[in-house]
Design a protein that fits this description.
By secondary structure, the protein is an alpha+beta fold. It contains 19 helices and nine strands. It has three domains: about 150 residues; about 110 residues, no CATH class; about 200 residues, Up-down Bundle (Rhomboid-like fold). Strands 2-3-7-8-6-5-4 form a seven-stranded mixed β-sheet, with helices on both faces. Strands 1-9 form a two-stranded antiparallel sheet. The longest helix is centred in the N-terminal third of the chain and has 35 residues.
Length: about 500
C-alpha cells in the first residue's frame, strides 16, 4: 500500500496536473484566439487534430519522463519508459481531440438572415439560416485535384470542388464537393480511367443536385476544403482576394444534430484515460535506484531526449547528418504552417513549393532540381526518408568529412531529379529519397571494394537490403519514383567506386 501511495504521489498526480493544464490551456487559447477572434493563421486540421495529438508529448517529456523512470517497467527501450510516455501522451490527446471537435461547433449559434449579403455582417460567425436565396448555376466553376496517402503512397484520392455564386451577393459562394479513392498501385492508364469516370459521375451528380433542399449553411474556415473551392472560384475571378471570399456549404440535417454525442464523450474519455494511466502506474514495482536518483535531482545518463538532441546537434559529432535532417524537417514544418496538407498534399501544393516536373524544369525552373530534394509529400514520407537518411549517414560519416558527405548528397540528388524528368513525362517528384539512395549507392561501393572494415560488412549488407532494397521493390508496383531512386543509387555507386580506388591507391603508396 505504501508503494502504491508513493507511485501515485510521484508519478500519477503529476501526470494528472500536466494533463489538466495541457487540456485547459490549449482549449482556452483555441477557443478565444482562433474561434472567437480568428487570430491563429493555421488550417483547421492542424488545430483540430495534429496539434492536439502531438503537443501533449512536450510537457510530458519536460516534466514527466524522469518521474516515469521510478517505475520498474520491463521493455527494450529504456526499460519500457518510452512506451509509458507515449501512452500517457495518447491519454491526454484523446479527450483533447474530442474537445476540439466539440468546441468548434458549439462555439457558434445559428444566425437567421433575410438576405444572403448579410453574411458579411457576421465575420466571426459560422452557421447561417436562409429561407430564400438564389443560386446562379450557370456561373458554376469546378476544380479537380488528387492526393496520395499511405505509407508508400498506395492510396489515391480524387477531389472535385464545385462553386456557384449567390445572386445579389458579392464574394459569397455555394460549395459542393465530391471525393473517391482508388489504388495508386494500378497502371497510369487504369488510374486515368478511374479519374475520368469519377469526373463524369460527379458532374452528373452536380447537374442533378437540388440547391434548395437544406437545413442551414456552414461558412468554411481556413482548410484544405476551402482552398479547393477557392481554386474553383478563381476560374471565374482570377484576381479574387482569398481572404475576402465566403464559402458556404449546405447541411441537410438539423442544426441541433451537429454536436452528436461529442459532449458526453469528453468526460467519458477523460475518465477512461485517467483510469488507464492509474492502472499503468500501479502495476510495476518501484525502482529504488531511480527513485534515489530522482530525489537527488540527478539526471539519468541514458536519457533518450539528450541522445536525440545530441544527434540533431549540427555542431556535434554528427554534423552532416544533423544539418541534412534539420533542413528536411525544418522545410516540412514551414510548409505545413504555411498551409500545406500534413499527410497528403495535392500536386499543385507541391509544385507551388518547388516540386520537380519535366514541364516546369524545361521552361526554365532549373532550381526545382534542388528544391524538390527538401520537399516531402506528407508526414509518413518525411519520416521514412529521415530514418533512411540517418542510417545511411551513420554508415558513412566515419569515412567522409561532413562537407564531402553533404556534397555527395546534393550531387546524387541532382542526378536523381534529372533521371526523374528524363523518365517521366508529367510526374510530380519530391523527396530526399533520390539523394539518400545516392548515399546508399556510395555505401554499396564501399562495401564491395572493402573500404568498410571486415567486421561491419555483413551488417551493412543487411542495412542496404532493408531501405534501398525494399523501396526499389515497392517502386515497381507504382506510387514511387524509381527513376529518381535508380539515378541516385547509380550516381552514388560511381562516386563510391571512384573514391574507393583513390583510397586503395593511397594505402598502396
Amino acid at each position: 500500500m505504501e508503494s502504491l501511495i508513493l507511485k501515485i504521489k510521484k508519478v500519477y498526480l503529476p501526470f494528472l496536473l500536466i494533463a489538466g493544464a495541457t487540456i485547459v490551456t490549449y482549449t482556452a487559447l483555441r477557443w478565444y484566439l482562433d474561434l472567437k477572434l480568428g487570430l491563429i493563421p493555421l488550417k483547421e486540421n492542424l488545430l483540430n487534430f495534429w496539434l492536439p495529438l502531438l503537443l501533449p508529448s512536450l510537457p510530458l517529456i519536460v516534466w514527466q519522463r524522469h518521474r516515469n523512470r521510478i517505475l520498474n517497467v520491463n521493455g527494450k527501450r529504456e526499460n519500457g519508459h518510452f512506451l509509458y510516455l507515449l501512452l500517457m501522451s495518447l491519454a491526454i490527446a484523446t479527450p483533447l481531440l474530442i474537445i476540439q471537435q466539440y468546441i468548434q461547433k458549439a462555439a457558434f449559434d445559428l444566425i437567421p438572415l433575410h438576405r444572403i449579403a448579410e453574411v458579411h455582417q457576421h465575420p466571426n460567425e459560422r452557421y447561417f439560416k436562409l429561407n430564400t436565396y438564389n443560386i446562379e448555376k450557370q456561373g458554376s466553376q469546378a476544380f479537380a485535384t488528387s492526393r496520395t496517402s499511405g505509407r508508400n503512397n498506395e492510396s489515391l484520392s480524387f477531389y472535385l470542388y464545385f462553386v456557384s455564386p449567390f445572386s445579389e451577393a458579392q464574394q459569397i459562394w455555394h460549395g459542393i464537393d465530391y471525393k473517391e479513392s482508388t489504388t495508386n498501385r494500378a497502371s497510369d492508364e487504369a488510374k486515368n480511367r478511374a479519374y475520368q469516370q469519377f469526373l463524369r459521375q460527379s458532374e452528373q451528380r452536380f447537374k442533378d443536385y437540388n440547391f434548395y433542399h437544406n437545413s442551414y449553411f456552414e461558412k468554411l474556415s481556413y482548410s484544405d476544403k476551402r482552398d479547393g473551392f477557392l481554386e474553383a472560384a478563381r476560374k471565374a475571378k482570377p484576381d479574387l482576394v482569398a481572404e475576402e471570399q465566403v464559402i458556404l456549404i449546405p447541411h441537410q440535417s438539423s442544426f441541433e444534430e451537429r454536436l452528436g454525442e461529442s459532449y458526453p464523450w469528453i468526460f467519458r474519455s477523460m475518465a477512461i484515460s485517467a483510469l488507464a494511466v492509474l492502472l499503468m502506474v500501479s502495476i510495476p514495482n518501484i525502482n529504488q535506484d531511480e527513485l534515489d536518483t530522482f530525489k537527488q535531482g540527478t539526471k539519468a545518463k541514458d536519457d533518450d531526449l539528450n541522445m536525440v538532441l545530441g544527434f540533431l546537434n549540427p555542431l556535434g559529432p554528427n554534423k552532416a547528418i544533423a544539418i541534412l535532417l534539420l533542413l528536411n524537417l525544418g522545410t516540412f514544418i514551414v510548409m505545413v504552417l504555411a498551409g500545406m496538407n500534413i499527410m497528403s498534399p495535392a500536386g499543385h501544393e507541391l509544385l507551388e513549393w518547388g516540386a520537380n516536373r519535366r514541364g516546369e524544369v524545361l521552361e526554365g525552373d532549373y532550381w526545382r532540381l534542388f528544391s524538390s530534394l527538401f520537399i516531402h509529400a506528407g508526414l509518413i514520407h518525411l519520416f521514412m526518408n529521415l530514418f533512411g537518411l540517418s542510417i545511411a549517414g551513420l554508415m558513412l560519416q566515419d569515412f567522409l568529412k561532413p562537407l564531402s558527405l553533404i556534397t555527395v548528397y546534393l550531387l546524387c540528388g541532382l542526378i536523381a531529379s534529372i533521371s526523374s524528368i528524363f523518365w517521366h513525362l508529367n510526374t510530380i517528384s519530391v523527396g530526399a529519397s533520390g539523394a539518400i539512395f545516392g548515399l546508399y549507392g556510395l555505401a554499396l561501393a564501399f562495401n564491395l571494394f572493402k573500404v568498410f572494415p571486415a567486421y561491419s560488412r555483413n551488417q551493412n549488407w543487411l542495412l542496404l537490403a532493408l531501405f534501398p532494397g525494399i523501396s526499389l521493390v515497392y517502386g515497381f508496383f507504382g506510387g514511387i519514383d524509381n527513376a529518381a531512386h535508380l539515378g541516385g543509387l547509380l550516381a552514388g555507386f560511381l562516386i563510391g567506386a571512384f573514391l574507393s580506388i583513390r583510397l586503395s591507391k593511397k594505402k598502396l603508396s
